[in-house]
Automatic annotation (TrEMBL):
Signal peptide: 1-34
InterPro entries, A to Z: MetalloPept_cat_dom_sf (IPR024079), Pept_M10_metallopeptidase (IPR001818)
One Pfam family of this chain: Peptidase_M10
Organism superkingdom: Bacteria
Biological process per Gene Ontology, one example term: proteolysis
Alphabetical UniProt keywords: Hydrolase, Metal-binding, Metalloprotease, Protease, Signal, Zinc
GO cellular component labels: extracellular matrix
Name of this protein: Matrixin family metalloprotease
Length: 308
């Protein structure tokens, strides 16, 4: 599942000391090519003077939203106050910060406190509407990164259903013929044949007995229980880590990318979180941030620091 995320543009404000960067850049995302929004290594080595002089042009070319950088300190870093009691969401926030810190090669995001922070992560109980179906958003004016609680709570069940369906499909694909053949043979041994008028009822009962007697069925039950007790929530943890990392991209000043593979694409998602096998094996090495995401973030931060 891919979900919509957005930057609340109506709340964008410009810092009074950075009037040069006051206007957010909004450009089409339908015609640009991948290379056009990927800053080169050479561009990332320019001087502060260069970034100040060419800020507007760079913002337009690489789809940057300078007004969204309201939560950054003068050194370009952000301190996050995690205002939720949900343990899994707390883990998702930590993962999201770790994704960016690792890719950027520095500590861009750190966890703060209620008294010491530059932005607040929290949950919103606002209901979705026809005009706003997003599951998370960044609001620069209030310096708040919100996750929609109703979507978050429902997603654990969605992931659980997906994983359980995968397990059932794999089981019946492998054993359906075996179950049918053995059930018919068992009934035939009792003198019950397919020509009998009420054959379907005893066949279903016998097929159920055969199915539950298979060693693989015991494994299936254990796996389904594992989904319910652990893996569905684990999948949701990684899904929302990507979701929150996307919003943190907005915090650093990134508009949406035209490239579907990028974390900053306007619809972001991680199909791995719906896979029983992949979540069970572990997604600890997964990082959704692409080279384009990383280089755009580096450029946005360099321009911000140069202007401050």
């Amino acid at each position: 599942m891919r979900k919509l995320h957005h930057l609340k543009a109506q709340s964008l404000i410009a810092a009074a000391t950075v009037t040069l960067l006051a206007t957010p850049v909004v450009t089409s995302i339908t015609t640009a090519q991948a290379a056009s929004v990927t800053p080169s290594s050479a561009l990332l080595k320019k001087s502060n003077g260069y970034y100040r002089t060419h800020a507007r042009a760079l913002g337009k070319k690489y789809k940057l939203a300078f007004d969204a950088q309201s939560a950054l300190k003068k050194n370009g870093k952000a301190v996050v106050y995690v205002n939720t009691k949900d343990k899994t969401l707390k883990q998702s926030v930590k993962l999201a910060m770790a994704y960016w810190n690792k890719k950027l090669g520095k500590t861009e995001f750190t966890q703060g406190s209620k008294k010491n922070h530059t932005l607040t992560f929290g949950v919103s109980t606002a209901a979705a509407s026809k005009s706003d179906q997003s599951d998370a958003w960044w609001t620069p004016m209030t310096k708040k990164l919100d996750v929609r609680w109703s979507y978050y709570t429902a997603e654990k069940q969605n992931i659980g259903i997906s994983m359980t369906n995968q397990l059932n499909k794999a089981f019946y694909k492998q054993y359906a013929d075996t179950i049918e053949t053995k059930a018919k043979a068992n009934l035939a041994a009792k003198g019950i044949t397919t020509s009998d008028k009420d054959y379907l009822s005893p066949f279903n009962r016998e097929a159920s007995n055969v199915e539950t007697s298979l060693p693989a069925y015991t494994t299936l039950k254990k796996d389904v229980c594992l989904v319910k007790s652990t893996l569905a929530n684990e999948g949701r943890k990684y899904e929302y880590a990507s979701t929150i990392a996307h919003e943190m991209g907005h915090v650093m000043g990134l508009n949406h990318s035209p490239n579907k593979q990028d974390l900053m694409y306007f619809e972001s998602g991680n199909n791995n979180v719906y896979s029983f096998k992949k979540v069970k094996a572990g997604l600890s090495k997964y990082n959704p941030i692409t080279t384009t995401d990383k280089n755009r973030a580096k450029l946005a931060l360099k321009i911000y620091v140069a202007a401050h």
